[in-house]
Automatic annotation (TrEMBL):
Pfam families, per database record: Aa_trans
Name of the protein in question: Amino acid transporter transmembrane domain-containing protein
GO cellular component term, pick one: membrane
Presence of keyword Transcription: no
Domain of life: Eukaryota
Major place of residence: membrane
Lineage: Eukaryota, Viridiplantae, Streptophyta, Embryophyta, Tracheophyta
Transmembrane segments: 54-76, 97-129, 149-167, 174-199, 219-237, 257-278, 298-322, 351-371, 377-396, 408-430
């Protein structure tokens, strides 16, 4: 394994990944749009599903704890990045920040592996959920139509290939503003639909009980915690902060506040309304509960249809945002910064390599349509280390607070607790994946919870 040196950790004049993909031109509200799109997505429709493994009390407690810890975590990471910038070491990549602060070459490869898993997983999941949205609409318009899930995946992949050609993270700023508005739109529609379903004549029977087996309840709880970690996770904050025009001090905090205001209104309303209506029958996509395969729709079809359209459009933005790390790596190794972003020398490799990346993501989405369980695994092995453990460790290493200070010990406590939760969550998630294996079929015509 090649040794990582200090010069490798700083953007160079020939670093096309930095110059093209992570161009530093944005304002704090642009960062807010990027952050909100990265965190607040259709996965919030899985919140009732997460609650069914925790119940009301523990569900509220864990969701609130996740909100507090992630905000604190992202705030600390922003401070570490700002401190490095003041010292003349502006880091624009998570992997370089971790390797610099912790002084370990292996940390560089650990972060890039975890980030790669998260970003690829979310890219695949975005394609899968977008295709499922199309299938939901198609099934209601043509219940006996011949089109299969993998055909909708091919359609979504084609759109993602077009969006993949947007050259830089900064170029997504208005798409991500639209993404924020879409989130508020479909959340309002889904919450209204759940309330309508809960008080309607066809209201489902409510059952909030947990599994009778104590051991199963424990495993379900840790799987739900992993799902919550994935929902609140980000994993690309340094790359988002890199899009800010320097100096970045204070700008990221404003972006975080914007993001968490949206989180407050969307996450809590979705979790409460969905779990209140469907209880332990909540699906990993609450839209499926509102529009069951058998029986009448539990809310006006046009309302659910509009929500599905909003979700579909936002998924395109999310898939594009999380692909930026892959594109940055591709561009860093394939582009020539001296030739210009739109020269034929750079456009052709960008077109070919990004298209290939999206085609592979679409292929795996069609082959492995297991959203609920995979969401849990990604949360445990990806988001928990990057968003709940490393930021506290990086802060303690960079600022070296006194070992008698409250900050040091709260950071240490969070590291220990979430490391344990991540290990248990990974075990529980993989266990559930194995138990559900009999439901899985490669290239299935349905998305499996």
């Amino acid at each position: 394994m090649a040794e990582i040196t200090q010069s490798d950790l700083l953007p160079r004049e020939d670093d096309a990944g930095a110059a093209f993909v992570l161009a530093s031109k944005g304002t704090w509200w642009h960062a807010g749009f990027h952050l909100t799109t990265a965190i607040v997505g259709p996965t919030l429709l899985s919140l009732p599903y997460a609650f069914r493994g925790l119940g009301w009390g523990l569900g509220f407690m864990c969701m609130t704890l996740m909100a507090i810890v992630t905000f604190y975590s992202y705030f600390l990471m922003s401070k570490v990045l700002a401190q490095c910038e003041k010292e003349g070491r502006r880091h624009i990549r998570f992997r370089e920040l971790a390797a610099d602060i912790l002084g370990s070459g292996w940390m560089f490869y650990f972060v890039i592996f975890i980030q790669g898993a998260i970003n690829t997983g979310i890219g695949i999941g975005s394609i899968l959920l977008a295709a499922d949205c199309l299938k939901i609409m198609y099934s209601n318009l043509s219940p006996h139509g011949p089109l299969k899930l993998y055909e909708f995946i091919a359609m979504v992949t084609a759109v993602m290939i077009v969006l993949s050609q947007l050259p830089s993270f900064h170029s997504l700023r208005y798409i991500n503003l639209a993404s924020v508005l879409l989130t508020l739109g479909y959340t309002s529609l889904v919450v209204g639909s759940c309330i309508h379903a809960g008080i309607g004549k066809n209201a489902p029977k409510r059952d909030y009980s947990l599994n009778h087996s104590e051991s199963v309840r424990v495993f379900d709880a840790f799987s739900s915690i992993s799902i919550l970690a994935a929902i609140f996770g980000n994993g690309i904050l340094p790359e988002i902060q890199a899009t800010l025009a320097p100096p970045t001090t204070g700008k990221m905090v404003k972006g975080l506040l914007m993001c968490y205001i949206v989180i407050f209104f969307t996450f809590y309303s979705s979790a409460v309304s969905g779990y209140w209506t469907f209880g332990n029958q909540s699906s990993s996509n609450i839209l499926k509960n509102l529009l069951p395969d058998e029986g009448p729709s539990l809310a006006p079809t046009w309302v659910i249809g509009l929500a599905v359209i909003f979700v579909l459009f936002q998924l395109f933005a999310i898939g594009t945002v999380y692909s930026q790390v892959a594109y940055e790596i591709i561009e860093k190794n394939s582009a020539d910064v001296k030739q210009g972003m739109f020269s034929m020398r750079n456009v052709i490799p960008r077109l070919v390599l990004r298209t290939l990346y999206m085609v592979l993501s679409g292929f795996f989405a069609a082959m492995l349509p297991f959203f609920g369980d995979i969401n849990s695994v990604v949360g445990a092995i990806g988001f928990i280390p990057l968003d709940f453990v490393l930021p506290m460790l990086l802060y303690n290493m960079a600022f070296k607070p006194s070992k008698t200070s409250f900050t040091y010990w709260i950071n240490f406590f969070i590291i220990v607790v979430f490391s344990g939760a991540g290990i248990m969550g990974a075990f529980s998630s993989v266990r559930k994946l194995a138990l559900d294996a009999n439901k899985f079929k490669l290239f299935s015509g349905e998305v499996v919870d």
